[in-house]
Amino acid sequence: MKIAIVGATGLVGSVMLKVLEEARYISFDKITEIIPVASEKSVGKDLFFNNMPRKIVSISDAIAMKPEIAIFSAGAAVSREYAPLFAKAGTFVIDNSSAWRMDDGIPLVVPEINASLLSQKTKIIANPNCSTIQMVVALSLLHQHFKIKRLVVSTYQSVSGTGQKAVEQMMNERAGTRTNMVYPHPIDMNLFPHGGSFESNGYTTEETKLLNETRKILGDDSIRLTATVVRVPVTGGHSESVNVEFEKEFEMEWINKLLATTKGVVVQDDPEKSIYPMPKYAEGRDEVFVGRIRRDESQPNSINLWVVADNLRKGAATNAVQIAAYLLNNELVNA
After folding, report:
1. Residues 101-153: pLDDT tens digits?
2. pLDDT tens per residue across span 13-52
3. Phi/psi class of residue 55: alpha, beta or left (left: φ > 0; alpha: ψ in -120 to 50)?
4. Which of 130, 143, 185, 194 is catalytic?
5. Cα–Cα distance for residue pair 161/89, rounded to 1 Å
6. Which among 277, 283, 242 is positioned nearest to 155, based on CA atoms?
7. What is the pLDDT of residues 308-321, one digit of tens each?
């Protein structure tokens, strides 16, 4: 099986290659070729995968090579233009941009929740936004049992979610050197409630994605959600304060038990010992970490959660590789 990584030299693309190198989800004996794809300025250069050099190719050449799977992390415009061309050639496209997420007929997939939507006909598959992924993984079983009525979410998002240039801005500021400004403000020793671009209603595109994508993934348009996105000076991952109101009554022991058995979730919740999720320790991990689990005493049938995950891994690269593994393991590729 040939796998193309479109945007292989970018921050998320490099993590995708790392996740594939680890062979946790797809073993090396099932991959015959890795095809790194990048912009014209990088074509012909070597990119190392599993300690072996691989020539970077153009996106047109990659289409001609007819890989079984192409994982995209090159922006919405590239995905809109080239994903259909890969699909027409018979390639499954797993796209990490926002290009296809809300398109009817395009599955928006978190494998732990809705991989059953995938079939031989679903040639273009959307990878959700990083902050959405970690939240719905944590909430999926709870929603099945108690039905989510409303969510109030505040996210504390890593600069790595913006890209390598944002990481460089923060590190340059920390070192006291001149830097190119990716953000409208300094980010080191600072934070600001601004992720994505502002819309006419005062919300940002990142906040709107949380609403729309959560409804689509959980298959429930009745869920109400309001969000505030905050950018914070960390690189390890995204953190979220999530207030959940359910339609059904519950006991807290049921909540704790369901979270402990939710696939992909690790519960870290012992406040007396200062044990709770933190991005510093989520970095490099594929799990979603949940803690500060407690009843909201101001509102019936409600709880508060603190949810943390590495936004470059489960929030992007790992989720995409898990989708690829599902296609392979369920014999949808070359079936």
Report:
1. 999 999 999 999 999 999 999 999 999 999 999 999 999 999 999 999 999 99
2. 999 999 999 999 999 889 999 999 999 999 999 999 999 9
3. beta
4. 130
5. 31
6. 242
7. 999 999 999 999 99
**For residue 5, which amino acid is it?**
I
Catalytic-residue membership of 238: yes
Q: Is 130 annotated in the active site?
A: yes
> Can you list the alpha helix ranges (DSSP code H) found in the chain?
11-22, 59-64, 76-88, 111-114, 130-146, 164-175, 205-218, 252-261, 279-282, 318-329
Query: What is d(CA 76, CA 318) in angstroms, rounded to the nearest whole number?
Result: 19
Q: Are strands 288-295 and 302-309 parallel, antiparallel or unpaired?
A: antiparallel
Q: What is the pLDDT of residue 86?
A: 98
Domains of the chain: 2-128+316-329 (3.40.50.720), 131-311 (3.30.360.10)
